[in-house]
Amino acid sequence: MNDNTKIVIHNGKTVTLKGLFKGKEKSRKIMAALSFEEKIKMLVSLQELAYGWGRKKDVAVWKIP
Q: For residue range 1-50, what is the model confidence (pLDDT) as tens digits?
């Protein structure tokens, strides 16, 4: 694969491999700038998703105040 390889993403749009990695890097920087509390809230949200929608009943969902 080269940087001009096209990839179809979730909404039917296409993006180059280079563009995909650029977007991932941008997302990583945004998430790295979040506060610790926001990161924990995101983790709890993922736990709830895995428990409910993913039917993963062995997942512990943290209770936060």
A: 676 788 888 788 888 888 888 999 999 999 999 999 999 999 999 888 88
In 3D, which of 16, 17, 46, 18 has the Cα closest to residue 31?
A: 46
Q: Is 47 helix (H, G, I), strand (E, B) or coil?
A: helix
Query: Sign of torsion, CA 25 27 30 31?
Result: negative
Burial (0-12, 13-18, 19+ Cβ within 10 Å), 48: middle
3-state secondary structure of 28: helix
Query: Which pLDDT value is given to residue 59?
Result: 77
Q: How many other CB atoms are there within 10 angstroms of residue 47's CB atom?
A: 16
